[in-house]
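Subject: Interface between my chains keeps coming out wrong

I've been trying for a while to get a sensible model of this assembly. When I model each chain on its own everything looks fine, but I need the whole thing in one frame so I can look at the contacts. Pasting all components below, labels as-is. Any help appreciated, I'm running out of ideas.
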Amino acid sequence: MKILVCITHVPDTTSKIQFTDNNTKFDKTGVQFIIGPYDDYALARAVELRDQTGGELTVLNVGEAETEPTLRKALAIGADKAIRVNAFPKDAYFVALQIAHYAKEGAYDLILMGRESIDFNGGMVHGMVGELLGMPSISPVMKLDIEGQSAKMAREIEGGKEYIEVDLPFIAGCQEPIAEWKIPNMRGIMSARTKPLDVVETISDETFSQVNAFQLPPAKGAVQLIDKDNVEELVRLLKNEAKIL
Amino acid sequence: MMSFELNENQEMIAQMIRDFGAKEITPYRNEWDEKQFFPLELFKKLGELGLMGVLVPTEYGGSGFGYLEYVTAIVELSKLDPGVGLSMAAHNSLCTGHIMMFGSEEQKQKYLPKLATCEMLGAWGLTEPNTGSDAGNMRTVAIKDGDHYVINGAKNFITHGVSGDVAVVIARTGEVGDSHGMTAFVIEKGTAGFRGGRKEDKLGMRCSETAEMIFEDCRVHESQVLGEVGEGFIQSMKILDGGRISIAALSLGIAEGALDASLAYSKERQQFNQPINRFQGIAFKLADMATETEAARLLTFKAADLKNRGVKVTLASAKAKYYASEVAVRNANEAVQIFGGYGFTKDYPVEKYYRDAKLCTIGEGTSEIQKLVISREVLK
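Reply #2:
Try treating it as a single job with all components included. I did that and got this:
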């Protein structure tokens, strides 16, 4: 089975978010980058499926040269080869176009990615890739098993779960608990240096949108503690200061 | 150009240990410390990750990395729990290192793959109850009897003295006082006449097992001699040259851990309506800690780099071990002071760093012995 896992290169979840260039660019100073946590679940399940069924696992990222350590981490975790589409990921459509092109070229049986990235949280790429390739795209998938040429999945829906069966090939946006995150071992880290990491060019520069500016949420105010018996004071503050009553 | 930054492999190893440790070490470290429990299962997991054979070449089942990656791994483990860092370092650099450096091809094939995965846990015995720094005066003897040696005596303060599956042991085969009168043997657990003795009840490093090893008419076949007969002490000094880099790394982990904890606490803790790091009394402590930690890091990685390049590291590793261990003690001491009353409790990690750090100025050559080594080298 040929599996493609698309990963994002995103700021660590504890990063301090700041912007530069008149609030138009994310300030990367001192920020540590990681594999998107949802993509990490997709990768972990893909490693398990590859180990069960054999075949080849490729990871792909649309990003500039700085994302290569993230791709090599995915190789250390267990991917067999990596592809970096050499471009800044301008918007969801732009990323989906690149993925769709290289996914079609590679004729993958299974295309996995996170349900969403954790930088812009659009959650759109898997759907767009499905549309571009004319394949089913399912998200958020929390359980995935492959049986022959079809897959059984559990998808999270409002208030419960939905169980789906679909033929290969298809696209899935993944989330926990599809698999446990995998920690690379020393042998994996060593072998990541010799696994292929191909850099390819973009297929199209077309985008749907552009970012004009970012704005941080207002800073959190100080917390005021009120004695549990002093309900009158609580009501007064909610009315006069918080102005929510 | 010389780079002072971690390389990509080192970054990945550090992250791997942080991710692993958050699940497998941090939640349990206080319990292990309190009960003085040696978490053997943890070391098996470290073996699966490849951390018990970091320097062992891949053809012997190891990870095949160099000293920069090895030091990084010890630093990160020691930040989480110095006792885990100590056990991992002793296994890698002493027992495994001795077999790797002086073992025959057959001995390497037999032991290294099992040590690298921690299927076998390693111990290394040089110190005796009456000979610490004066190791050359050891009393444990090995008398030749046909194609065997009969070993009698005791070793103490041995990391994994009870739980070790295989031990490298130095015993006297010649005259007292002759530095070429001692021989290294590799002895497996279960060999008749060899047993673990009393486990020490320690101030710190409590999850790392430290115990006696006792030999009573223990018959060891001559095929278990490591390298040349009579060269065990000389071999040990070479092993300790490398071993000191491990203890420097362990010390650096404690120093960095104590600094990181102090920085975080000094930002959170408010007194007189401001964070305590606004007071120079605290800020200057942090400045000293940060500067000395950086100096310890540079000395430690310099020694590691020289070792990688096959250069003699006696001086560099003694300097690194001496300085980094003293910084670990000072940083842990200042960290407790910065944390004030909370630093004296087990609710924060600095109390444990304070107790664990002291081993670093003692084990694998005291600070005083390091100064002897350094002064002899610089006076040559």
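Reply #3:
Confirming on my end. Chain B has three domains: 8-121, 123-230, 234-378.
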